[in-house]
Amino acid sequence: MPPTEPLPFAAVDLGASSGRVMVGHVSGRGAGTLRLEEVHRFPNRPVRTAGTLHWDILSLYAGVLDGLRAAGAAAGRAPASVGIDTWAVDYGLLDATGALLGNPVHYRDTRTEGEAAKVGAVLSPSALYGATGLQYLPFNTLYQLTAAQGSPALGAARRLLLIPDLIAYWLTGEAGTELTNASTTQLIDPRTREWSRSVADALGIDLTLFAPLRGPGDPAGRLLPEVLAETGLTGPVPVTAVGSHDTASAVAAVPASGDRFAYVATGTWSLAGLELDAPVLTEESRSANFTNELGVDGTVRYLRNIMGLWLLQECLRTWEAEGAPQRLDRLLREAAGVPGLRSFVDADDPAFLAPGGMPDRIREACRRVGGPVPETPAEITRCVLDSLALAHRRAIEDARRLSGRAVDTVHIVGGGAHNELLCRLTADACGLPVVAGPAEAAALGNVLVQARAAGVVRGGLAELRALLRATLEPRRYEPTRDRAEWDRAAALLAGEGGRR
Which residue among the candidates 246, 349, 386, 398 is catalytic per the annotation? Predict the structure, then answer.
């Protein structure tokens, strides 16, 4: 029998620009209740040292401890469980004593340049995709590991833990590798949901470095006594594996009914695609650069990574550094008044991957497309949002075509759900209604998997999503009827080369 009072669950949600700890209060009584509150937020600032870009992992861990302390204070008791989700692909190396061998390297570091060609000389792109189903991204864990071969750190390592598993290890002393995040390494076979030993053996990657696999809902240990003392919590406090790739948790929190939906998980990246029962491993899918990542409850996240709001975030940082800071709310209002589709670029262009100088890079890309070059911050912002809407359209149309799945609604979750202009433009570009929200989808998916593991709620994804629909009020955007301008812009981008 579910408890009569809502139980608090702590969701640690680390994104590429900030971390947060949320408390979800969940009850399974009657129709069920769900309430989410943010109790602590802290910055995530990468640090470049000696030419290498690192994550400041100890600062992030300190933020997690502060957040768990705040969670206990907000709930008036220790959380019933703790779950951790973060970005994908990056990892920490531990020595034989369990000590960290240096700060984890950031996926935007340049160390993987040229690695795809080296890997391709051993395994063809088609063979690699057929074994792992993962789209080519230059920073996939596989390329990070081949780039690190022969380094002192990898030579001394006895354990490799992906970022959410590293945080969980420090909290509990127990090591594991959560499956949804493991599927982003390009070392998992999405059909068997196990390691692809043929790929690892061909590339000389030692799979014994990875801790045993565990899935969403599996136990991941209990908070150590020193962690309880540091946070002021009274134990025992279990840690539960969730969809530890933040996108896996976010997709679990898409408040959809049925399966005829597409999603766009927005933030620093836009991850646009479908939820499927089985991977799509065709050569056409590989050529379209689609990925088959694993989701909650045996699902497959069939999606394309798009550069996302990183483009606008980097513009904002550049303008601030130049002494011309922009208020985002005002900038979006001004961008709404700029004529649409006047300037647009391929948002998937790898030229946008590195930080710094984004407004100039966007202008140069506009010159390549052949359209007007945006000059003002409002014009550049409109260019970015029109370009993202075009990229969302292309990804969703390609996903439908390649999978054979019909789509009648697009769900936008994550931070971009607050961006009314982006949601409206995506509806117009796709010619489909857009349902926007929840913005904190990753934290909600994290909480719901914990609550189900604790027996507070029951059922599969359909039941979890029904609880979300009953307790949230997403906003709906209907498309305009005229898609001719969007069709023209999409054709121009396709002719210019589209995705590179």
Answer: 246
